Amino acid sequence: MPKMKTHSGSKKRFKKTASGKWMHRKAGLRHLLTGMSAKRGRQLHTVKVEEKNSHEAAVLRTYLPYK
Q1: Banded pLDDT at 43 (limits 50, 70, 90)
Q2: Spatial contact of 41 and 33, defined as CB atoms under 8 Å apart
Q3: What global pTM score does this model have?
Q4: Most exposed of 18, 39, 45, 67 (fewest Cβ within 10 Å)?
C-alpha cells in the first residue's frame, strides 16, 4: 500500500502537542487591528488547543497521518 499524502494546508496550520491534542492559531489578527480593543487582541494571541477525541481531531488524523 502506498504512503498517504499529507494535506499541505493543514501541516502549515496545525501542530500536535505531546499529550496528543491539536493546536492552532486563532483567526483575526492580520488586518483592521486599529478598531479592535487591546483586550480582544490579547485574547486572540493565545493558541487554541482542540480536544483529543473530537470530530475535528479525527479529521486531522486523516489529513496529517505522520504527525
Answers
A1: very high
A2: yes
A3: 0.78
A4: 18
